[in-house]
Write a structure and sequence with these properties.
globular
């Protein structure tokens, strides 16, 4: 099965704020917000939704294909993808611009404020065909270029290809009618709790309306785990405890990698979510979105320590 991941490839510039955002934001002055956070330093890491998800899938033995646009400064990221046996066939350069960049500041409560420069991501990608005879496909549509996201959803529907729809951090660039059109027919809608609330507000839908248009709704809730919602039948999947949370950035992307690995294996949705939670636990233990390492045997041991034997 060919796995295509549409989303962003970006350099993450990660910063730590040694305080609490809430102590510096005055609710009654939010309309004239003007704040400055002095940080402890900055590190640059490989990131972007598509890159992060593909990286975790590669660690789990998969070879997804990323669909994205990149800039003139992509060389070192390209080498990293190749080192992890990830194809660059559908990663197309845009001359004269930078690769997308995320500037992420995290406070002591693990709250985050992110500024994102789309760079090359602002240019629509060339979408791959999904109708090769004798080949099956699955598409994961992660936050990225909106034209790509809408186009890939439409192409997947036309070809009868299952797709996961994850608007995530891109919600601020959508209109409600565009969201209603793009999510229709998805195998799975995935978001965090805040994004789900915002999505329903933007579309004017209730959760029942979303259930009528997608098969599965999965909602991540950080340290509380994830919620599997099968047409209103909700199951809380507990998070994996870790000794120390160094950086939550990218945990949601790793969750998607573990989830998709389980789905490709043909496992039940609750086990897929458990696998997502296990994958996410590796990320929060390291500083950066692609700094974790694991192999299938290690992953299975961690899974079994919390959920029992992984039958596959």
């Amino acid at each position: 099965m060919n796995i295509f991941i549409s989303g962003s490839l970006a350099y993450d510039r990660i910063m730590d704020f040694p305080g609490h955002f809430a102590d510096h934001i005055l609710p009654h002055k939010i309309h004239v917000l003007n704040v400055c956070f002095n940080i402890n330093g900055l590190v640059e890491k490989f990131g972007g939704t598509a890159g992060n998800i593909a990286y975790t899938l590669a660690l789990l033995g998969e070879h997804p294909r990323i669909v994205a646009r990149v800039g003139d400064d992509f060389n070192r990221y390209e080498r990293r993808l190749i080192d992890n046996e990830l194809s660059t066939e559908w990663i197309k350069p845009v001359p004269g611009v930078f690769t997308a960049g995320a500037y992420i500041t995290t406070d002591l409560d693990d709250n985050q404020i992110t500024a994102f420069n789309p760079g090359a991501m602002a240019y629509a990608s060339e979408l791959p065909p999904l109708n090769t005879p004798g080949v099956s496909f699955v598409v994961l549509i992660a936050p990225g270029n909106k034209t790509d996201m809408m186009g890939f959803a439409a192409k997947a529907r036309e070809e009868g290809v299952p797709f996961f729809f994850d608007p995530g951090q891109s919600l601020n660039i959508w209109r409600g009618d565009e969201l209603r059109e793009s999510v229709a027919g998805a195998l799975c809608f995935i978001s965090n709790d805040y994004e789900l609330t915002l999505f329903l507000q933007m579309t004017g839908w209730t959760i029942a309306d979303l259930h009528a248009r997608v098969q599965v709704v999965i909602t991540t809730n950080g340290p509380e785990g994830s919620v599997l919602d099968l047409k209103g039948d909700r199951t809380l999947i507990p998070a994996i405890p870790v000794s120390e949370v160094l950086d939550p950035t990218g945990a949601g992307d790793a969750f998607r990698g573990g989830l998709l690995k389980g789905w490709k294996m043909g496992l039940p949705w609750d086990i897929c979510c458990q696998m997502g939670n296990v994958a996410a636990s590796y990320v929060v233990e390291r500083y950066g979105t692609q700094e974790h390492s694991l192999d299938w045997a290690d992953f299975c041991r961690r899974y079994e320590a919390h959920f029992g034997p992984l039958i596959c």
